[in-house]
């Protein structure tokens, strides 16, 4: 039987294109980045770039989702770790959220997504469905487990969702906005803010009693 072609070279080339294109999109923005510039950055001819991606929209979507798919798998692994206590699971999941949104290169894609979302709604929709909703569902399941075990009280999930993710997104944007300041780590230290954020959320989720929460509050994150 003939030996099937080895796809590893194609996969490596695709991954290299995505990595280099991500840097270019983040630094220059979508509108200012041409396919010619992308091909030059990747060290290939433009027809070769079109062989891997049918256009700039397809390439930016691949850049957006590449790192986030991996991030979701890391977060899901934490959510499924039965060896952890409910608080440990929540803390480790929050650490993964900070790692993805604040500390990893893919976290810098948020302004790019905002730039292209009106022109290409499919990019925003895919990002929302494949990352944002999955991220929220995993965090919701972690909280549900804590509530069922009596470790957490049953708080309003919509409000809690924004208390969880709002500060992380704000920190990510602030660190990008003020990256040139020599006081960046003084004003926006990631680990200190992350730990304080977790402490405050856990204090809130431990407070009161289940009897004090409204039975009809939405549970969808």
What report would you give on this structure?
The chain is mostly helical and 221 residues long. It has a domain at 64-212: Orthogonal Bundle (Tetracycline Repressor, domain 2), CATH 1.10.357. It has ten helices and no strands. The chain has helices at residues 8-28, 35-42, 46-52, 56-79, 86-103, 110-116, 121-148, 157-177, 184-187, 190-206. Helix 1 (8-28) crosses helix 2 and helix 5 (86-103) runs antiparallel to helix 10. Mean pLDDT is 87; it is low at 209-218.
User: How many β-strand stretches?
Assistant: 0
CATH architecture of the domain at 64-212: Orthogonal Bundle
CATH topology (level 3) name of the domain at 64-212: Tetracycline Repressor, domain 2
Uncertain runs are 209-218
Oligomer: single chain
Rounded to the nearest angstrom, the radius of gyration is 20 Å
How much strand content do the residues show? under 5%
* Coarse morphology: elongated
* Average pLDDT number: 87
| CATH homologous superfamily heading of the domain at 64-212 | Tetracycline Repressor, domain 2
Write down the CATH class of the domain at 64-212: Mainly Alpha
| Total of DSSP H or I helical runs spanning 4+ residues | 10
Return the string of H and E elements: HHHHHHHHHH
Quickly describe the structure.
The chain is an all-alpha fold and 221 residues long.
Write the layout of secondary structure elements.
Blueprint: H1 8-28, H2 35-42, H3 46-52, H4 56-79, H5 86-103, H6 110-116, H7 121-148, H8 157-177, H9 184-187, H10 190-206
